[in-house]
Structure to design on (344 residues):
């Protein structure tokens, strides 16, 4: 990505996605002011083609935007909205105003009713894309309005997730034509946000370890703490590399499915350990509501199962490798990330 664009978005989020703002949105369930600021910035159309009024970024070029959304704990679905607006514009669908979420899996169907559980940031969005909505045995992708849905709270403190359901969804929704791998894209984008959140957790933990003293010296001087910090740094860095590779895509904007699978699996596996180490180093301070660490670690815990857990994506990768003729995993996976690298 253009460093000027990266720095511009980083400064914007530093100004508008502050801990007090995040806490207010989590408490009130409303983000109108923040949504208006994002709308005016134009970043929601980052991947919309230039001739349609956007910036024309590719999925790979937009990785840094997704990473920064996680790094600043942005309490909006801007990352999925960027994807949805680009895909809908490409398909000739009238792009709606407001935030767009991509429904989590699984999606339940019964009696011409769609039920989506734990919709990420579902409390704040105006629209939800439901992939493969198997209503009346005719699976389609639907764009559904949240104001026509029945809402049920998850009961999780400060969570922005919500359960949503629609009766007779085709009468209130818009059919999105053309096959698009919504689940894989959502997984790759979520991995990028997780990498951003881990980067913030790492920086906060290293800074705290350097400031907190015990037995007359900073705890960062103790070998046991240093070892834990090195593991945290390793996991955060590996997750960022995997997420960036997972956002590489073809010319039509669709990601490499296996790269996206590895990215989400890697980030989800790392998240639990990253959260554990960060809270262990911070000790009691880290679990207080007033301390900012939990703004990131709570999201990491939610994100690690959004759009498929590590187990789900590892099975996808394993099944693909086992069904191939490749002599080893490396021979199979290398072309996924570096096309043309495999030997003839």
């Amino acid at each position: 990505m253009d460093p000027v664009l990266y720095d511009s978005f980083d400064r914007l989020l530093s100004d508008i996605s502050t801990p007090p703002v995040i806490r207010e949105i989590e408490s009130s369930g409303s983000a109108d002011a923040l949504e208006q600021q994002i709308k005016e910035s134009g970043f929601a159309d980052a991947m919309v083609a230039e001739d349609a009024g956007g910036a024309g970024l590719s999925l790979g070029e937009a990785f840094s935007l997704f990473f920064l959304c996680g790094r600043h704990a942005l309490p909006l679905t801007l990352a999925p909205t960027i994807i949805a607006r680009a895909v809908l514009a490409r398909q000739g669908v009238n792009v709606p105003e407001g935030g767009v979420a991509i429904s989590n899996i699984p999606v339940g169907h019964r009696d011409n009713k769609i039920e989506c559980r734990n919709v990420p940031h579902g409390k704040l969005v105006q629209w939800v894309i439901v992939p493969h909505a198997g209503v009346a045995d005719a699976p389609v992708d639907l764009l559904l309005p949240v104001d026509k849905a029945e809402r049920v709270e998850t009961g999780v403190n400060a969570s922005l997730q919500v359960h949503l359901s629609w009766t007779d969804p085709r009468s209130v929704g818009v059919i999105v034509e053309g096959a698009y791998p919504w689940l894989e894209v959502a997984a790759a984008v979520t991995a990028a946000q997780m990498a951003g959140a881990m980067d913030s957790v790492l920086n906060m933990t290293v800074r705290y370890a350097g400031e907190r003293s015990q037995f007359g010296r900073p705890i960062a001087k103790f070998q046991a703490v240093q070892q834990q910090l090195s593991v945290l740094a390793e996991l955060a860095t590996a997750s960022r590399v995997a997420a960036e590779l997972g956002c590489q895509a073809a010319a039509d904007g669709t990601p490499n499915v296996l790269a996206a699978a590895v990215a989400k699996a890697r980030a989800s596996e790392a998240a639990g350990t990253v959260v554990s180490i960060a809270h262990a180093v911070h000790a009691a301070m880290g679990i207080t509501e007033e301390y900012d660490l939990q703004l990131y670690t709570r999201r990491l815990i939610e994100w690690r199962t959004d759009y498929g857990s590590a187990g789900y994506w590892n099975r996808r990768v394993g099944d693909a490798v086992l069904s191939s003729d490749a002599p080893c995993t490396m021979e199979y996976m290398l072309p996924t990330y570096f096309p043309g690298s495999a030997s003839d």
Summary: Strands lie at 100-102, 107-110, 113-119, 127-133, 140-145, 150-153, 162-167, 174-176, 213-214, 217-218.
